[in-house]
Amino acid sequence: MLPEDLVRDHTVYACVMGSRAFGLATDGSDTDRRGVFQAPTELFWRFEKPPTHVEGPADEQFSWEVERFCALALRANPNILECLHSPLVEYVDDTGRELLALRDAFLSRQAHATFARYALGQRKKLEADVRQHGAPRWKHAMHLLRLLTSCRDLLRTGELTLDVGAAREPLLAVKRGEVPWPEIESRMVRLADEADRASHTSPLPPEPDHRRVEAFLTAARRRSAARTGRLTASDGP
């Protein structure tokens, strides 16, 4: 089975990400598609395992195998968590709905460290651009401000919201290069400080719910195997 076939035939969840999901799309914005596929259980009984992710088959499309997706989500990977909360869902089957029902199981205070670490790496790249070219990549600066705001609000409320709402125009002004870099830096420092403070009183649990996620994966693998006639639904994995 080709990797592209896994995406075409076994996708359980597909959504649009990027600027369109964040409410920041303009006329020239791409459509970034992300998805989750479940490789048939029998493929794992071979020496050559199915891929953990697949690029394509469409342009700007990227998908993860469900187990890899869950493992990254349990580590509070920002891109994965945001994918689970996209307001633009293009496809979801019964397994995908079970995955979406687990969104709260993946959220924890660990998001503070992962979001902050990712943001720090992106900020260093922007600072390098300023040193070398006199200005940052403004689009990246916009998205970093959006990410920092999202992290702060997640820690404050326990909910991850992607659409920037009323912040759309101020963020697009950053993208257009209309906001001086020192002001952007100041905003980044303030948002990071606010996220730090929010992490101490966050309603989020200290860790994600590994047990619930593992139960979901086990049941999904068992159902897939049962469909091949090699394992009954009551048997073990």
Please, could you describe this protein's structure?
The structure is a single chain. This protein has 237 residues and is of the alpha+beta class. The chain has two domains: 3-107 and 208-227, Beta Polymerase, domain 2 (2-Layer Sandwich); 110-201, no CATH class. It is 55% helix and 11% strand. The chain has eleven helices and five strands; from the N terminus they run H-E-H-E-E-E-H-H-E-H-H-H-H-H-H-H. It has helices at 3-10, 19-22, 66-74, 78-84, 94-100, 103-106, 110-133, 138-157, 168-175, 181-201, 210-227; strands at 11-17, 32-37, 53-55, 61-65, 89-92. Strands 3-4-2-1-5 form a five-stranded mixed β-sheet. A hairpin with a 5-residue loop joins strand 3 (53-55) and strand 4 (61-65). The two termini are 22 Å apart. Mean pLDDT is 94; it is low at 231-237.
The CATH class label of the largest domain is Alpha Beta
**How many domains is the backbone divided into?**
2
Q: What structural class should be given to the helix and strand makeup?
A: alpha+beta
Q: Quote the beta fraction.
A: 5-15%
Largest sheet: 5 strands, mixed
Name the CATH architecture of the largest domain: 2-Layer Sandwich
What is the subunit arrangement here? single chain
**What order do the helices and strands follow?**
HEHEEEHHEHHHHHHH
Report, as a whole number of angstroms, the end-to-end distance.
22 Å
Describe the strand arrangement of the main beta sheet, using strand numbers. 3-4-2-1-5
Query: How big is the Rg?
Result: 20 Å
What do the pLDDT scores average to? 94
The shape is globular
- Low-confidence runs: 231-237
Helix content: 40-55%
Task: Find the CATH topology of the largest domain.
Answer: Beta Polymerase, domain 2
Give me the number of helical elements. Answer: 11
Q: How many individual β-strands?
A: 5
